[in-house]
Amino acid sequence: MTKGVKIVTIGGGSSYTPELMEGFIKRYEELPIREIWLVDIEDGKEKLEIVGEMAQRMWDASPYDVKIHLTLDRREALKDANFVTTQFRVGLLDARVKDERIPLSYGMVGQETNGAGGILKAFRTIPIILSIVKDMKELCPNAWLVNFANPSGMVTDAIIRYGKWEKVIGLCNVPVMAMMQEPKLIGKTLDELVYSFAGINHFHWHRVQDLEGKDVTSQIIDRLYEKYNGLPANIFDVPFFKEQLKQMNLIPCGYHRYYYRYEEMLDHLLQEYNDPNVGTRAQQVKQTEAELFELYKDPNLYHKPEQLAKRGGAYYSDAACETIASIYANKNTHIVVSTKNNGAVPDLAPDDVVEVSAYIGAAGARPIAFGSLPPSERGWLQVMKNMELCVEEAAVTGDYGLALQAFTINPLIPSGETAIRVLDELLIAHKKYLPQFAEKIAELEAAGITVKDEIARNLSKEEVVNV
Amino acid sequence: MTKGVKIVTIGGGSSYTPELMEGFIKRYEELPIREIWLVDIEDGKEKLEIVGEMAQRMWDASPYDVKIHLTLDRREALKDANFVTTQFRVGLLDARVKDERIPLSYGMVGQETNGAGGILKAFRTIPIILSIVKDMKELCPNAWLVNFANPSGMVTDAIIRYGKWEKVIGLCNVPVMAMMQEPKLIGKTLDELVYSFAGINHFHWHRVQDLEGKDVTSQIIDRLYEKYNGLPANIFDVPFFKEQLKQMNLIPCGYHRYYYRYEEMLDHLLQEYNDPNVGTRAQQVKQTEAELFELYKDPNLYHKPEQLAKRGGAYYSDAACETIASIYANKNTHIVVSTKNNGAVPDLAPDDVVEVSAYIGAAGARPIAFGSLPPSERGWLQVMKNMELCVEEAAVTGDYGLALQAFTINPLIPSGETAIRVLDELLIAHKKYLPQFAEKIAELEAAGITVKDEIARNLSKEEVVNV
Amino acid sequence: MTKGVKIVTIGGGSSYTPELMEGFIKRYEELPIREIWLVDIEDGKEKLEIVGEMAQRMWDASPYDVKIHLTLDRREALKDANFVTTQFRVGLLDARVKDERIPLSYGMVGQETNGAGGILKAFRTIPIILSIVKDMKELCPNAWLVNFANPSGMVTDAIIRYGKWEKVIGLCNVPVMAMMQEPKLIGKTLDELVYSFAGINHFHWHRVQDLEGKDVTSQIIDRLYEKYNGLPANIFDVPFFKEQLKQMNLIPCGYHRYYYRYEEMLDHLLQEYNDPNVGTRAQQVKQTEAELFELYKDPNLYHKPEQLAKRGGAYYSDAACETIASIYANKNTHIVVSTKNNGAVPDLAPDDVVEVSAYIGAAGARPIAFGSLPPSERGWLQVMKNMELCVEEAAVTGDYGLALQAFTINPLIPSGETAIRVLDELLIAHKKYLPQFAEKIAELEAAGITVKDEIARNLSKEEVVNV
Amino acid sequence: MTKGVKIVTIGGGSSYTPELMEGFIKRYEELPIREIWLVDIEDGKEKLEIVGEMAQRMWDASPYDVKIHLTLDRREALKDANFVTTQFRVGLLDARVKDERIPLSYGMVGQETNGAGGILKAFRTIPIILSIVKDMKELCPNAWLVNFANPSGMVTDAIIRYGKWEKVIGLCNVPVMAMMQEPKLIGKTLDELVYSFAGINHFHWHRVQDLEGKDVTSQIIDRLYEKYNGLPANIFDVPFFKEQLKQMNLIPCGYHRYYYRYEEMLDHLLQEYNDPNVGTRAQQVKQTEAELFELYKDPNLYHKPEQLAKRGGAYYSDAACETIASIYANKNTHIVVSTKNNGAVPDLAPDDVVEVSAYIGAAGARPIAFGSLPPSERGWLQVMKNMELCVEEAAVTGDYGLALQAFTINPLIPSGETAIRVLDELLIAHKKYLPQFAEKIAELEAAGITVKDEIARNLSKEEVVNV
């Protein structure tokens, strides 16, 4: 490496960028950054400028001399990068509004990484990430790609499987939050416990041992029913069934609520959807975002504002910084990441991407072999991973039948005519970002299919006008 | 073998017994039967006598001298049996009414082999089949057990896994019906096609080749949308989505409708449930059964009445007779059976019971290796098989947490409080047959939980009184 | 299919061809052949003519009107073929002499399908079979390829793996001979037993059950030590260790002697090698072949001469005819064939070619799932199959390091300098047929490496002169 | 834990004990030891006393107050132990002499952990380790067992598989030595490289990456052919074939020489065996040991003598101390250990013990998922692991047929009559330690089988007299 590290952040205009800067500043001694490039697209130019100036102010207020470059030219930025982080959202928050509202308008879970919404997000994101990988092969073939664009697991899997790019690590803040909150419950610090995670992104379980090697998972489970606040802000906090958790003797991840408490999670989402004063998560986030960007505009603000923690992805960026520092300084830090299985979860194929406990160092992620899961977790994990494989292939090929297969086996989507309708409306609503499905979308439009949900429909219209 | 074959039928008072007799009479030349023992329990004594006399009349009208023995003493019957068939229904049709109505009273699929009903049926049936196996080890250790007690797959799996009894074959009429109906669709006879089935009971797919080895699955799929009548009488005929079938290039089984067209199947079940003039399938069947037994009482009836075909299980018994004859005469007939996987479906463990194309002969079932299924089918098959494993273990241990796990991962049961409620009511309703869950049931009763559905509640009451 | 079947035999000048003709004549009623094309290369032209005329005489003496076509133009022959059989030997028997004598000259097993000789035979044969497959894709894309060119397992595997041709069945006479001889040992006919084979070509085991489903393997093993003559003529008959066979409760194949009785088999081979009046098997066979061709020249001979049975491959052709007839007439015959695993032997990958019991019909081979083998057989099978994979890849790529890897893990080749020397001499000796290794061979020649064994060296010289 | 750690060393009279003490003294600050118990058997009493006094002197010369307890009463020692290390050798060095000389007297590899010798060592050691585990379950159920009794892999596997004891880690010095020597070859320190090991004990491979994640295995391989001295003292240093190593792009372990250079290793062993002035390794070691014990007797010696490094097991004890300290202080050190696979090497079963890179901390070993090996390594690893399974089961059951199976598939034992003879003589020679084979041994003795090698025969006689 030439002196100092070059970091490129695609989707640099994100409201999370200040957290990323804070993480880098904190770790500068072990990760001596030379320059940071924030890349965004035309539609995000304004945000990029606001957040870019904020980022530069943060560095200027630090003891370190780091230059922030802002650009809409991805290829210019990627040249000779050492680390590329991806945090973009294709279609911005408006796309998320549609991913949420269209399924909910038919009484189905509308969520950005689970269910129908997550599938459509993958359809939009995978082609873009593959084009980034293509650029990286040419412009920075030795760089590491640290992805936290969602759905992080499928995106990471597609990068390896279809992009044939092995130097990638996928990140998520969910395990971080569990490890921040749980130890307190049993009067321990994280250093006094050993965590082992296994599964896939937003669908993993963990067990915990103490320093004498004793399993304390059950003890934590007991305390979870007394007090707990370890969920990302975007997940409604309905408790798991205690008899179930005690039986599995594993702690599910926050997102597992959608699967273990489907009924209540759906009710909650529908309640927000139906209340015009609340709206779905994306609508709430749009508000938070607007506020954040107002704050960022303040030329006297040179540190991450507290309000950022309200966003569901809090700590995401911190995990990213720690991952990058661990690779650079060969720290062998225990981080839970999306990486190639290699056998760590023997119930899935060795070349599937999984989300597991790993030690992160110069060689990237070294996943810890967890062993087979019990039948109840194993079966469910297998259907979810295979669903992901269908989604990825459909994202690459635009095969509608396969999209339908993915919808059908997804546990959050009741199959039938309504599911078809939801799929079709989502395709139409995201038309701009789904060239691979162009033919099918034309056919649906010709058949007169339109988006029922008014808000989603109007957002779709605007978009078309804008382009 | 001593001269002639001794056959024992447990659940001999079933309305299907005449079909079984017909099947044996038809095959007498290759399967020379010496004696048939029909066994039933006290509650089924009256039916046993009616059907037993009918059976004897059928044989008397045949050229063969076969004696029908009727008994309530299972152990007496099993002594030195060559083949034991099991077709009993623990709790008779009333139990099925509860399996259907209790879930439906909460808007969930109520069906006797799928969803909550199927799980409860397994809870009741597995302990009984294991006690039969225990008797067989003592009284007829060389006999073959041919099971068609439902849920046939889980029951067969439990026989091998927990009963440690390897000489068993599980049967189902669903593949038979597909092979009877589909060839006509493309102007062929069954002899002109090669069928390959893979999956588990009530959850399998098949592909078809012609005599030149060419895959004609897609051709059959096309014709299925023109005309088709290959479903068992108990499955509502809503078509699969054509784009989905064309993508998979496999034909799902009839029961797959519950998974691929969940919404419409549930609507249909609810419609029947809510219509007092129709009622759920069990209620309809009770009517058919009553009519059948009226017919059977006729001392001049000595052949299987046509009305029997209306029952969903038609051809079940024929498959059983063909299986027995194939073992006895080493015929190597292609039959689709539940048997130990041994690798035939590499996506499941070698010791899982699967339902696959097999050649049946003196060595029992020799399953044909099908190869890996594509991701969409693979993942779903894996979750279903693992759900079965949870159900079986819960049936053996009475572990409520595991019952809950099975409910949770079952694709036909939306998880949440309602699922818990359905499970709890079902446990209470079937109390008499669930000694393994006695402690939990007592706890539920103490908590004041009662069955909401009036019909189911009343049936449960009667039962308690009767015992 | 147009009226009547067109069969093409590549390596038609083989001395086995009359057996093939006999097999077709015997099955004409179920396999109505229209025409047979015997194809050979320039070097085999004389033999082709002798055997071709003999073949025509055989048909002329039959009630059937079938025309034998002789050609050196493979592509002309392949046009619209229904079945293609491959029985060629690259380099003719002289190549086999070298495969045997060169290893033996260094005290190593020299055998045409096992050890160093088998590996070199694969190196010569795989490129040719892949070129045949390439022609078939163009000229007869619906034909079945029935291979009995050795090493049959690796050749069949390469056809599927590298040739991407799925309509292939690999054959061997070893299982046939076991099934012909063993039943008598326990006073049974083959019809009274159920055979189950699992493994790979020349490295498989079988178990046997009687018509009551009882395992009689152990009983056969006991009798094997009393009297037995079920070996191909080319395998020296040293008995297996009885305590070992009783422990495994499986019957190994004849070729397993090389592995279970390595010491004695090697001694025997060396004894023949060192006795100028005997010579290695290929030298003996050359004599038998010369005699056979003398016989074939007799214009009055119109049936297969008895002397043919002395060749090791007896019944090979009969198995081929039965396979073809079973496919054509959808007979579902139990034949042991090399075919894609699909899970039949779960200890190997689903896409590995294995040699297993299969039912042969219109859809080709349907392998029977055998289940996992015990550790002793499993481990050995795994090393052998993986050795095959190395050989095949080296045959395709000419990678010398990989050839060395294959030599190293092959249980019949003690690793070390001598193994290298044997490999190098074999490469030089077969130079004409190993263009993929041309560069390495040039290097070896430049280093002055020559063939030590005089007979092998002289044969190599002639060959070079001839070309 | 009560204050301070209690360590129990079984086989405490070993000449390696001083190294162990040194390791503990060095790590006292992170591993505060309270007391150390050295346990041995009656036959080793004298050595125990010598080495025990030496050990106490070492601690007395340190700043720490640790008491060494010497005992022949294993159960007394085990009470409330925190860590138990096992380094015993059943039958002492005399048994090793026999393991080496008997095979060599028939021209076969005689080596204490590979080939026939290693199998017999497992037969003697496994029953003893299982009896230790039985005691531990009763007396110190929370202790960790750190095994370096050889054959370390099979012993560790048997502890988990048959002993049902999960808190065990198996150790070996071979990976340590590779990691000490190789980095220098490319001008690096160990800190500047990332090592990944996979395989089983004495049969593993590794790859190496630098701090930029680049694979430098090939670079190290190149330098290995220039200068290298990274082998344990007990392995003859014949180089691997370079073309082979470059092809695999992995570095085999030192013991792999027996497999990759069988011929030369055998020649070397035979040369030593046949030279009365040299003798086999055990004979040489006996000399070294005698010298060491003479040194240990010196009351002024209170540090590990340099001569100890001559023993093949050097650094073994250091690895053990580091492992114990890493568990105690939850250090997450990268150590290569024998531990349950859990998927780390997907080519073996999840419950097989493998030897892999792992992070060692409070939860024991967390193996790093390595992914599938290429065919050449995969196949060989599979046959070796399955051989181990046969050995372990034969060690537990005394099944002679299975012992024969293990001998047969072991790549270092040419099968045949001679192998049988070697097995039989070894059984007789080790009679005292093989009660599980008593019946077969009596049969062999009755048949007049005696040990051919004079030295081994005489050692066997003495032993019988002594007991």
- The run of helices and strands of chain A is EHEHEHEHHEHEHEEHHEHHHHEEEHHHHH
Strand order of the largest sheet of chain A: 3-2-1-4-5-6
What is the multimeric organization of the chains shown? homotetramer
Helices and strands of chain A: which structural class?
alpha/beta
Q: Using the alpha-carbon principal axes, give the shape of chain A.
A: globular
CATH architecture of the domain at 5-170 in chain A: 3-Layer(aba) Sandwich
Salient structural properties:
homotetramer; 467 residues; Rossmann fold; 6-stranded parallel sheet; 3-stranded antiparallel sheet
Short note summarizing the structure:
The structure is a homotetramer of 467-residue chains. By secondary structure, chain A is α/β, with parallel strands linked by helices. Chain A is built from 18 helices and twelve strands.
Question: Would you kindly provide a written description of the structure presented here, covering whatever features stand out?
Answer:
Chain A has 467 residues and is α/β, with parallel strands linked by helices. Chain A has a domain at 5-170: NAD(P)-binding Rossmann-like Domain (Rossmann fold, 3-Layer(aba) Sandwich). Chain A contains 18 helices and 12 strands. Chain A has helices at residues 17-26, 45-60, 74-78, 92-105, 115-139, 152-161, 174-185, 217-224, 242-248, 257-260, 262-274, 281-297, 316-328, 375-397, 400-409, 417-429, 438-446, 454-466, and strands spanning 5-10, 33-39, 67-71, 83-86, 144-147, 168-170, 193-200, 203-210, 251-252, 333-340, 353-361, 364-367. In chain A, the strands form 3 sheets. The first copy, chain A, has a 6-stranded parallel sheet, sandwiched between helices. A 3-stranded antiparallel sheet of chain A has the order 7-8-9. In chain A, a hairpin with a 2-residue loop joins β7 (193-200) and β8. In chain A, α4 runs antiparallel to α16 (417-429), α5 (115-139) crosses α6 and α14 packs antiparallel against α15. The radius of gyration of chain A is 21 Å and the shape is globular. The model of chain A has no long low-confidence stretch (mean pLDDT 93). At the A-B interface, α9, α11, α14, α15 and α16 of A face α9, α11, α14, α15 and α16 of B. Chains A, B, C, D: Residues 197-413 form the Glycosyl hydrolase family 4 C-terminal domain. Chains A, B, C, D: Substrate binds at residues 96, 150. Chains A, B, C, D: Mn(2+) binds at residues 172, 202. Chains A, B, C, D: The record marks 112 as: Increases basicity of active site Tyr. Chains A, B, C, D: This is 6-phospho-beta-glucosidase.
